[in-house]
Design goal:
9 helices; 11 strands; disordered N terminus
Length: about 375
């Protein structure tokens, strides 16, 4: 909620809440008056008003609890209050005494500066790392895990690129995930995911360790990234490899290089060169957008970045230990013994813990 943040940092907490309510009332008046003659401005005001609703509801809930606490305190202090009534009032007052700090904490989190990319769709990229065929098989399982997670949340999962190994593994796979606040839920998944298990091809029963790399990028729109046509080198060539046999008679594969940054994207999944180019541009735009976001974040934090929020793809973030049925997220020392459910897409407990940890760090930095 960027328009409110300058007020919140320069005022007391209660004054900040008053300013939020005032701003919300101002927006309501502007919308009631039609928001001016500019449809784009009206849409912008409507979105801001809608985004503020959870905050306003939480403020009213807090104020109601505070007022009720005051009334109960007076009732308890009144010598004319009979014993039974005072006992009831003290019990309610005790409950509210615990509830008010919780409501304040909830509000503080709601008022934290928002990552403007949180509401965006996401580009998911999974690549096999060290470990040969076993790493490729694990990459395919991770890709399907995120697909199930997306389906559980009612998001649309569109596979854009799959480079198979021929034994069911993926050298790399890319998908677009479309839905409400997708990036905000998946942005902490970037990094190296390590797996420990006995491969099916291992006759001696030895546990092998391999890895896959995950990158989650906010899907960038054209307005987010200004890409000049002259900065692009576009090569077309004949598709090859698994899945390419039906399209390899024409130069349908596309490789786009962004010369200023050196970012390269190659797509050959579609029979149409035009469709491959569109997919490649979508991925290219998102990679450039994310690189710029990381640069700005680094400068803003004076090179001190939260480990959870770093999205460093070379960082080992999680271990999946199949013999023990254990998942460990190394950034927050979280261990869960429900690996089978996690691989079926049950990731909410992990993501909620990462989000809570990140909010706690934000609040500590502001304090």
């Amino acid at each position: 909620m960027p328009p409110l943040w300058p007020y919140i940092t320069s005022m007391s907490f209660q004054e900040s809440l008053d300013r939020v309510l005032e701003h919300h009332a101002e927006l309501e008046s502007q919308l009631a008056a039609g928001g001016g003659e500019d449809p784009a401005k009206f849409a912008e005001l409507s979105k801001e008003y809608s985004d503020m609703e959870p905050v306003v509801i939480a403020i009213r809930e807090l104020r109601e609890a505070e007022n009720e606490s005051g009334d109960l305190a007076e009732l308890i202090a009144d010598p004319d209050t009979d014993g039974e009534m005072r006992e009831m009032a003290e019990a309610e007052f005790s409950e509210l005494k615990e509830k008010v700090p919780e409501l304040e904490k909830k509000l503080q989190i709601l008022l934290l500066p928002r990552d403007k990319a949180d509401a965006k769709n996401a580009i998911l990229e999974v690549r096999a790392g060290t470990g040969g065929d076993e790493a490729a098989l694990f990459a395919a399982e991770l890709f399907r895990m995120y697909q199930r997670f997306a389906e559980e949340h009612g998001w649309k999962f569109e596979t854009m690129l799959v480079n198979e190994t021929g034994i069911g593994g993926y050298k790399e796979a890319t998908a677009t995930i479309i839905g409400r606040n997708v990036f905000s839920r998946l942005k902490y998944e970037s990094g190296v995911h390590r797996v420990q298990r006995v491969p099916e091809t291992e006759s001696g029963g030895r546990i092998h360790t391999s890895a896959a790399t995950v990158a989650v990028l906010p899907e960038a729109e054209e307005v987010d990234v200004d890409i000049v046509e002259s900065d692009l080198r576009i090569d077309v060539y004949r598709s090859s490899g698994p899945g390419g046999q039906s399209v390899n008679t024409t130069d349908s594969a596309v490789r786009i290089t962004h010369l200023p940054t050196g970012v390269v994207v190659a797509i050959q999944d579609e029979k149409s060169q035009h469709k491959n180019k569109a997919k490649a541009m979508k991925i290219l735009r998102s990679r450039i957008y994310e690189a710029e976001r990381e640069r700005v974040d680094s400068e803003r934090a004076a090179d001190r970045r939260s480990q959870v929020g770093s999205g460093d793809r070379s960082e080992r973030i999680r271990t999946y230990n199949f013999p023990q049925g254990r998942l460990t997220d190394h950034r927050i020392n979280l261990t869960l013994y429900k690996l089978d459910r996690v691989m079926e897409g049950d990731l909410d407990e992990v993501i909620d813990a990462l989000t809570t940890h990140h909010h706690a760090e934000q609040l500590a930095d502001l304090g």
